Amino acid sequence: MKTAEIHVTVNGVPYEKSVPCNQTLLRFLREDLFLTSVKEGCDEGECGACTVLLDGRPVNSCLVLAAELDGREVLTAEGLAEDGRLHPLQEAFIEAGAVQCGYCTPGMLISGIALLNLYPHPTREQIRKEMEGNICRCTGYTRIADAVLLAVEKMDTARAEARAAGLPEPEFRGIDGRFSEKWNSQYQS
Amino acid sequence: MLPRFEYYAPADILEACRLKAAGAKPVAGGTDVYVNMHGGKEKAAEVLDLKGLKELQGQRLTPEGLDLGALTTHRHIEEWEAVRGRYYALYQGCSQVGSVQIRYRGTLGGNIMNGAPSADSVGPLLVHGAEAVVLGPAGERRIPLEKFYVGFKKFDLLPEELLARIFVPLPPDNAGSAYYKYTRRNAMDLALMGVSAYVEVREGVLENVRVALTTAGPTPVRSHAAEAVLEGNPVSDDLIVRAAEAAAAEGKPRSSWRSSAEFRTRLIHDVTIQVLHEAVRRAEMERKAEAILRKLYPGQIGKGGGDDENS
Predict the structure, then answer these.
(1) Arithmetic mean of pLDDT, B138-165
(2) How many beta carbons lie within 10 A of that of residue B200, not counting itself?
(3) Exposed, middle or buried by CB within 10 Å (0-12, 13-18, 19+), for A18?
(4) Where are chain B's structural domains?
(5) A1, A135, A189 ranked by CB distance to B54: nearest
(6) Chain A interface test: which of B47, B78, B100 (most A C-beta within 10 Å)
(7) What is A88-164's CATH superfamily?
(8) Which residues does chain A have within 8 Å of residue B188's beta carbon, measured at their own beta carbons?
(9) Which of A33, B58, B277, B286 to pair with A94, CA 20 to 30 A apart?
(10) Domain B175-296, CATH 3.30.390.50 — does that match?
(11) Do the Cβ atoms of A22 and B2 come within 8 Å?
């Protein structure tokens, strides 16, 4: 076949689309849905600028076909803010000065979300290892790691305040605990 | 941007075999095939997505060993605690492929079938005595992985056959393994040299030793010369150095823009020493503690699956 019909949920919004079979997820997000936070750096899986969460796991969207998306969920950096309020990780990137030219930033945010799902209280070493697939050519890595640690503090503080006030703990986009089930089912049916 | 192609994602294995025999390019994670298409090296007019084939899916640890669907991702192995303890070299190899994003997509079957001499999961599979299980219209064949490779990107595989599963026997408690990948960067880099070793240690004597070299020839290869030096002999620093010399003499690395053959030969020598020491240490120390605990708590620290949410 040359085109595929897909039902896909992107940043919580369901879409029904017909896509050419050689279209990558990267092109689909940028050109069909205008989600231009997803950057084309190398287009061959080296740089991580196009990283998105696919069913909760970080992937290089340049190496995934849009035709594979039927029934699946995608999260991009556009999906992190809620009701006009930035995600704690986004706030932390600004406050820690983790953004220089900005090209790698959306991919860094997504890899940061993925790593916080796996390690809610990561060490610097875990941050380095889990974000190894994202290249920053301004070489601002130290502040990016600082920002992830700051985001952890922010989320912990928000949770503690909610508990102290007797309110339900706040939820943060992309950090949802359902991490592995869907992904594994892809290979296990 | 990828070139135009026809896309097939069959759920039926015989349909997949027919499409492959007719020339469609099999794809699993796409972390090699789509990269090669983007670079213009791969020009297939038809792509055969294997991810819907149940014969290639799933993975479990049984008392006999590790039964891995060819679609098992590197990340799956990396996160699988029970595999880390028993197949340490495989854990090390899989956790050093590409990057996190690549490891979530790239598969063990794809790593084998891409045929790169530097494939990180293949040396560890070779030293753990893995078998390739291939499926075709005529049924199933099981081939030792070492024999499955017949040349540079060439396999003992008919056009209508697919690599379906990989079987890795369960190592005994006195076994240890290790893999060392020498690179210039910590991520997204190919091995300049990779050495894998598997040993069993019985009262200080090495048994069933297997050593494999990656990036030291047209395919990942066993170093039978190094194995012959070690087999049946008591562990000693001197013995390990002689094995490393044998491995370096046997390896046939080539010069490329990445590194000269001379440097790679020297690496075989030095890295083999490190890997053998690590494998012996793991055989004698880490596994011993696990074996004692298993005796103290029979059935609870189980062989086989069940202690892993992924299995």
Answers:
(1) 98
(2) 21
(3) exposed
(4) 175-296
(5) A189
(6) B100
(7) [2Fe-2S]-binding domain (1.10.150.120)
(8) 46, 132-133, 135
(9) A33
(10) yes
(11) yes
B contacts of A51 (beta carbons < 8 Å): 101
> Which of chain A's residues have a Cβ under 8 Å away from the Cβ of B102?
45, 60, 63, 133
Residue ranges of the domains in chain A? 3-79, 88-164
Fold of A3-79: Ubiquitin-like (UB roll) (3.10.20)
Residue found by looking up tokens 């190496």 in the block: A63
Helix (H, G, I), strand (E, B) or coil at A68: helix
Q: Mean pLDDT over residues B300-311, rounded?
A: 43
Q: What are the helix (H) ranges across chain B? A: 13-21, 33-38, 74-79, 81-86, 88-94, 100-105, 108-113, 122-127, 145-148, 224-230, 237-250, 261-281, 287-296
Per-residue pLDDT, averaged over B72-89, amounts to 92
pLDDT tens over chain A, length 189 residues: 789 999 999 999 999 999 999 999 999 999 999 999 999 999 999 999 999 999 999 999 999 999 999 999 999 999 999 989 999 999 999 999 999 999 999 999 999 999 999 889 999 999 999 999 999 999 889 999 999 999 999 999 999 999 999 999 898 999 876 544 444 444 333
The per-residue pLDDT for range B203-251, each reduced to its tens digit, is: 999 999 999 999 999 999 999 999 999 999 999 999 999 999 999 999 9
